[in-house]
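Email to the structure team, subject: ABC transporter domain-containing protein model.

Hi all, the expression group asked for a predicted structure before they design truncation constructs. Nothing fancy, just the tokens so they can compare against earlier work. One-line instruction: predict ABC transporter domain-containing protein, return tokens.
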Amino acid sequence: MAMLEVTKLGISFGGLRAVDELSMKIEKGGLVGLIGPNGAGKTTAFNMLTGVYRPTDGGIRLDGQNLVGKKPHEICKMGVARTFQNIRLFPKLTVLDNVKVGLHNQVGYSLIESMLHLGSYRKKEQEMDRRALEILKVFDLDREAGNLAANLPYGKQRKLEIARALATDPKLLLLDEPAAGMNPNETGELMDTIRLVREKYGVTILLIEHDMKLVQGICEYLYVLNFGKLLAEGTPKEVLNDPAVIKAYLGD
Ligand SMILES: Nc1ncnc2c1ncn2[C@@H]1O[C@H](COP(=O)(O)OP(=O)(O)OP(=O)(O)O)[C@@H](O)[C@H]1O
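Reply from the structure team: attached below.
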């Protein structure tokens, strides 16, 4: 059974069919790309996978469990985490606290414990600090732990977003244009980090990306959307040499 199974997924906004009959299968530990021209429906697909939009039709299963109709926080608890096209960190929190926000999904404590600063609260706080630092290390951000997120350079903010998503301990990590706005050096580093994250945490990754160097460099399999429909799928080599895909990107 595939880790993620999307079957004939579709959504309409009024008269616009933003995604239509999208089917995808991703095996556990896979690193897969969702690509396509602007407005093809990629982010809308992510919004359906995370419960932000309810599909008009079709199915989504994670490890056999139905996700359609579930709320975003329920889907997060079931093991799906995401990052966004535009950075959405807590700029006035430290780098460490941004990751701890993600950890609260698992290691939370009760209001009473935190108000009374009970021993159990302090223990859990220490445990969260330790785990947050461990994650930051993977992203080479541990030395920035005490800095405000807002003061990090752009490339590091993007990495921190992935670190925060990872802190929720996902089975499936959805990355929406992780390399957007990065220079080639930062993109190269990001590629290494994404590979490392997959290896170290065994997480399954689906990413939207326009940077073909990144897509070719790290994805094993690609799905191509065009006008909401699946135009092609296959290995990066197959897909990026497909005349229909080239035409969709370059136009007639
Ligand atoms: N809430 C909404 N209401 C109406 N139309 C929407 C809504 N969300 C998305 N759309 C439309 O759905 C289509 C697909 O948009 P989407 O953002 O998913 O594309 P995309 O492939 O992620 O594009 P890009 O690569 O530019 O980010 C677009 O025509 C968009 O205007």
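Residues 88-169 form a domain with the Rossmann fold fold (CATH 3.40.50.300). DSSP finds ten helices and ten strands in the chain. Ping us if the truncation boundaries need rechecking.
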